[in-house]
Design a protein that fits this description.
By secondary structure, the chain is mainly beta. The chain has helices at 8-13, 18-28, and strands at residues 40-46, 49-55, 64-69, 72-77, 98-103, 108-116, 119-126. It is elongated and about 105 Å long.
């Protein structure tokens, strides 16, 4: 079932907000069901740092891939085919290939990834450029009896 929201007025009335409208359209779209495998957590570590933890039991570090492309974090895994034959009575550990995508906000960068005890941890940090950070402007007062002031005189 598709959402009935129309973002055309936003495109007509606002300049530069196309990414927000596209993101809202993607989030509200129910055409593609979101996969539930593998399970993951997103936690806020500090005010400007985050960690995504993905349960990847059965995969080795060589089977996993983490990449960032155009503000999208893509985590994928493909298990190499088993060389030996196994005679499973029950196979409950899923090692099927997967791809997870996370949309990153502007100025959020991946600072590292680690694999520990069947968990893939991806660390992210919001790094706001100096030009975009708020800065305090010093206010100075100018006195009339200041020697640096020069009165303007008409030239004609």
């Amino acid at each position: 079932m598709r959402s009935s929201f129309d973002f055309a007025p936003l495109h007509r009335a606002a300049i530069g907000f196309e990414q927000i409208a596209d993101l809202m359209d993607r989030v509200l779209s129910n055409d593609v069901s979101q996969p539930s495998y593998p399970p993951y957590n997103i936690e806020k570590m500090e005010p400007d740092s985050y960690r995504i933890s993905i349960a990847v039991a059965g995969f080795s570090e060589d089977d996993l891939s983490v990449e960032v492309k155009e503000n999208t974090l893509i985590v994928s895994a493909r298990k190499a085919e088993d060389e030996g034959e196994h005679n499973y009575l029950y196979r409950g550990i899923a090692t099927r290939a997967f791809e997870r995508r996370f949309t990153l906000a502007d100025h959020v960068v991946v600072t590292g990834a680690s694999y520990e005890n069947g968990m893939l941890h991806i660390d992210l940090k919001r790094e706001i450029p100096e030009a975009l950070k708020p800065r305090r402007i010093e206010i100075t007062s100018v006195r009339k009896d200041s020697p640096e002031l020069v009165e303007a005189k008409a030239v004609n």
